[in-house]
Amino acid sequence: MKRLLDIEFHKFKYSKSSKVLTIIYLVIVILLMFTGLIQVNINGFKGSLSDLGIFNFPYIWHLSTYMVSFLKIFIAIVIVSLTANEYSNRTLKQNLIDGLSKKELILSKLYLAITLALLTTMIVFIASLILGLFHSDYLEIGIIFSKMEYLPAFFISHLMFFCFCLFAGVLVKRSAFALGLIGVWWIFELVIRGLSSFIDFKYDVDTWNVIQHILPLESASLLIKEPFTKISIVQGGIEQLTQGQYIKDYGVSLINVVTSMAWSFLFIFWSYKILKRRDL
Amino acid sequence: MKTILEIKNLSKNYSGLKAVDNVSFKIEKGHVYGILGPNGSGKSTTLGMVLNVVNPTSGSYEWFEGTTTNHDALKRIGAIIERPNFYPSMTAVQNLELVCKIKNIAKDKIEEKLAVVDLLARKHSPFSTYSLGMKQRLAIASALLNDPEILILDEPTNGLDPQGIRKIRDIIQDIAKSGTTILLASHLLDEVEKVCTHVIVLRQGKTLYCGAVDEMNHNHGVVHLDATNRDGLFEFLKGQPYAVSVKEEIEGFKVVLNQPVDLGKINAAAFAKNISLNKLFLKKQSLEDQFIQLTNHN
């Protein structure tokens, strides 16, 4: 395993696109950390964003994992291009001739995906911790390290997405087309959502509630639910509008963990099957 | 003798087309083998199959008498297929370091092998800036990194300029002299003729010949003779048991042989008949003639 990671990071280290995209990722994360200083004016409330209490422990774990999740596309491009370029440069063929087995090849890519998912989780952990220590109103150890389930959820959703990218790269062999495929799949999930919502509305059934936990991207995005309505000021606004109590379960549900893990496994398994069957 | 590779009835079909049809041969340690055949005769596909990048339709192959798994066997060989494949943004050294990691060997031979192929001066330039000849030489350096038990080269001089071809050929000849087993696929006959001791001839995926180069054709060559007295010489030649045919050409007679001959004895016999030869030499059939003959016959 150490050897495979070493091989994969050698490729990662000396690839231009991976360097550039990783730097962009880190820069955006750092910039996001300064958003606490932004002055806002919502609903009669005046002050900086941090005064809203959004950087309070443990709420910050939820907010930052949710926000930083959108940046995973940068790392995803790295994985897609590293995989697809192995085809276009024919280095995949040379790797096999040099004595890497097809299984080792997929495993090395999987290890890279796991490591990158772990690293991004680490980054969001450290960034949130720093932000929280600066801005949080509560600094008791028990509160700081509570409700941290969003971090493993962040890891799992990233891993699933990276496995999806890896599979797309292996399947279509060209990075641009592979990214296109991911985009098309995302639109496809939106179409399914529209259709099933329509069916639900017309026949008074609940298909979307089932399907959303099956679709890979939707299921992964449900791992960390939107945190905004949790902010008391926003929640208060909604309750005012709807004249009722706003209740929502913001926790990480097991079903989404299971489906995301299952999809990760399937994407890796299919990548291996495709690679094994294909003549290079 | 130690067998390095044994191929048994290997076949590959591409949607109905038989690219390789029931090919069998054995590679033994210490020889230099050539796989000859016109473009599209199945050379690269055969190599692709034994190198684990093309899945065979049927048949089998065995590296090192079956003592290791396929991908471990590949760590002990060096191979270049068709064109050099490296990571464009990495330098020569970085690319070779990666190969060392894949082959699980130490990195201390990188400098030495880059020196063999004369690339030391450019070792820190990215691969994408190399000329085709340099890329091909880097590929050879990469194949030599593990001091391979067999070196497999597929069309190593394809697309190179004359200097590049000469350089690659010199490198191959040096490697062959050092006793490394080589398997060289090519459609260029003089290339194979210059370095190979054994040859496998393929046409449309079928093996036409497999054996030593000089036994490729049961033919002993041609003797060219000439004398002032051509009529006398013709009479003399017709009576000789070794002459299959005698043909008069502008520059003299061409005699096709059916057995090995001693030119000295021919000279003496002719002189005894009062014919003084002003030209007498033996010409072995070139591999090209033999190859054309072989591919035409079948």
How do the strands and helices of this protein lay out in sequence?
The complex is a heterodimer of chains A (280) and B (298).
Chain A: H1 2-13, H2 16-33, E1 39-42, E2 45-48, H3 59-69, H4 72-88, H5 91-97, H6 102-135, H7 141-144, H8 150-172, H9 175-203, H10 207-211, H11 216-221, H12 232-242, H13 254-277
Helix pairs in contact in A: 1-6, 2-4, 3-6, 3-8, 4-8, 4-9, 6-8, 6-13, 8-9, 8-13
Chain B: E1 3-14, E2 17-28, E3 32-36, H1 43-50, E4 58-63, H2 70-75, E5 77-80, H3 92-103, H4 110-116, H5 132-144, E6 150-154, H6 162-177, E7 181-186, H7 189-195, E8 198-203, E9 206-212, E10 222-227, H8 230-238, E11 243-249, E12 252-257, H9 263-272, E13 277-283, H10 287-297
Parallel strand pairs in B: 3-7, 3-8, 5-6, 6-7
Antiparallel strand pairs in B: 1-2, 1-4, 8-9, 10-12, 10-13, 11-12
Helix pairs in contact in B: 4-5
